[in-house]
Amino acid sequence: MATVNSALDGSLASNSIDQVKRAVNISDAATMENNFISLMVAQIKNQDPTKPVDSTEFLNQYSAMSQVKSMENMSSLMQNNLVLTDNLQTLTAAGLVGQQVSVAVETLDLSGQAVNGQFDLSHASNRAALLLTDSNGTQTRIELGAQSPGKVPFVIDPAKHGLRDGRYSISIESENGEFPQVEVAGQVSNVRVSAEGPVLQVQGVGSVPFYNILEFAQADAGLLGG
């Protein structure tokens, strides 16, 4: 059964709201302004009548203080907007558990199940092949034959090609000299929250950062017709 490995509950939203409220502290701003005005009035009352203080200097100081406070509040708002965006991204990723996604990959975690994928050719090629290399450096070539420009689907069947369970690097070799990106479809089994953002566990692929997702689909639909 798919699970989400994070505490994605009401506390997430509550923490975000509290952080936004702290971004603009109206009470602190009012206190600072009141203290400044009190000091200004006290200085005016106690100034030397023969050498009155230029009122323009007070206004400039007050204006500078207000600008600094505004910049601090803007910085806090920007930081908290980033927090909200990150939390929304985490919630979105959590909603993908059990769903089918397509991701850009350079490695695969094979465990006996067939893996559906595709790549995109800009030009026709008389020959194309998948190159799979295991942890020992043993390479397996899966010939795909001549291909026209556009999306090229493929299926990796470990039993058919004698591929043992484990991690493999994957790349495309084409006669036209292109090195297209490999896309693989798999179901999201769980989501882990990390300092770099949500990390999805995708069947047949392994751990995938959220930003590597290229496409979403229903679990029973399949992305690549496999």
What does this structure look like?
The strands form 2 sheets. Strands 1, 2, 4, 7, 9, 10, 11 and 12 form an 8-stranded mixed β-sheet that branches. A 4-stranded antiparallel β-sheet has the order 3-8-5-6, with no helix packed on it. The protein is an alpha+beta fold and 226 residues long. It has helices spanning 10-23, 26-45, 55-94, 158-161; strands at residues 3-5, 100-105, 107-110, 115-121, 125-133, 139-147, 150-156, 166-174, 182-194, 197-202, 206-209, 213-217. It is elongated. It folds into 2 domains: 8-94; 100-217, Immunoglobulin-like (Sandwich). Helix 2 (26-45) runs antiparallel to helix 3 (55-94). The protein starts with a strand and ends in a 9-residue tail after the last strand.
Furnish the topology, listing elements before pairings.
Layout: E1 3-5, H1 10-23, H2 26-45, H3 55-94, E2 100-105, E3 107-110, E4 115-121, E5 125-133, E6 139-147, E7 150-156, H4 158-161, E8 166-174, E9 182-194, E10 197-202, E11 206-209, E12 213-217
Parallel strand pairs: 1-9
Antiparallel strand pairs: 2-9, 2-12, 3-8, 4-7, 4-9, 5-6, 5-8, 9-10, 10-11
